[in-house]
Amino acid sequence: MDIGGSKTEAVALDDTGAIVASTRLPSAQGPAGVLRTAEQVVEDLARRTDRGVDEFVSVGVGIPGQVDRDRGEVRGAYNLGIDLLPLRERLRERTGLPVGIENDVTAAAVGAAHLMGLSGTVAYLNLGTGLAAGYVVDGRPLRGAHGVAGEIGHLPVDPLARPCPCGQLGCLETVASGSALRSSWPAGGAHPGHTLLAAVDSGDEEARAAFDHLVRGAAASVRLLVLALDPDTVVIGGGLRLLGPRLFDGLRATLDRWSTDSPFLARLELSPRVQVLPEDSSAAAVGAALAVAGDDPAGAFGASSGVGRSAKRPACRA
Ligand SMILES: [Zn+2]
């Protein structure tokens, strides 16, 4: 499941990693609310697959904030009202199932690589309220020594040097994210992504500047990912996808323009590496299930012992 600030999305996967059921509920706030919602989506998936909850093999949870996989704890998921939650243990108590937790962007990276059939090294760039990346190498998440890999949103790049909540100035996240758009185009209100392009088309100069700024920041993020990781593919996902083809075309055009000016960048073939996550993809929920299943070699897909607790039917993962 993918627990987001507004909704919790969950899928049930069969032994091949195919989606056999899905569900979506509004996310309740606070530790108790998050746990209640998580338990409800597991029960809902059991109903939809005509199983008992105890027939699921494992539950993988993708959630924002600092995810300590060793302790099974989530810290600082402020858009969910969570300061500290021992999510793994609490959800295990409620469902009776093995639970694993994963950073939501890393989960989305794993799910995107799986659903889009991408092999090799994949970088997933999440342009949402914030900006962060997740990495997958040969189907396995790359998390770094302390789970910090992918926090590229806090690389200072912008000479405008707007303050970032992290305490630095001019971070990528202050340039290319939903929150950046809110501050660079205040006239757009709380959800500027929905009205930005109409304002650009009507000749609003501030909207145009905000859009151009956003496109440059997104392109700079792709360039950074290529230079840092040399991925085969950079997948773009996140809420700002609602800006559609104009964002991606602008991003690719910006990369191509930079490459015209730099033989070095031209050789890196930046824009051909960029792909867009299909709309309505359940990448984060799928990736959470896969990443957690992959932690247990005996339970990994394709392993001969990959059967559920009940031998009556094939294994199923939520
Ligand atoms: Zn920052």
Structure explained in plain terms:
This protein has 318 residues and is an alpha/beta fold. The protein has two domains: 127 residues, ATPase, nucleotide binding domain (Nucleotidyltransferase, domain 5, 2-Layer Sandwich); 160 residues, Nucleotidyltransferase, domain 5 (2-Layer Sandwich), CATH 3.30.420.40. It has nine helices and 13 strands. A hairpin with a 4-residue loop joins strand 6 and strand 7. Helix 1 crosses helix 2, helix 3 crosses helix 9 and helix 6 packs across helix 7. The relative contact order is 0.17. About 6% of the residues have low confidence. Zinc ion binds next to loops. Belongs to the ROK (NagC/XylR) family. Pfam families: ROK. It comes from Leucobacter triazinivorans.
Output the strand order for the largest sheet. Answer: 11-10-9-12-13
- How much helicity do the residues have? 25-40%
CA radius of gyration is 20 Å
Backbone structural class: alpha/beta
The percentage of residues in β strands lies in 15-25%
Major sheet characteristics: 5 strands, mixed
CATH class of the largest domain: Alpha Beta
CATH-assigned fold name of the largest domain: Nucleotidyltransferase, domain 5
Shape: globular
| Name of the CATH superfamily of the largest domain | ATPase, nucleotide binding domain
Bound compounds:
zinc ion
Rounded mean pLDDT is 91
Low-confidence stretches: 297-314
Number of domains: 2
How many helical elements?
9
Q: Helix-strand pattern, N to C?
A: EEEHEEEEHEHEEEHHHEHHEH
Number of strands: 13
> What CATH architecture label of the largest domain applies?
2-Layer Sandwich
The span between the termini is 7 Å
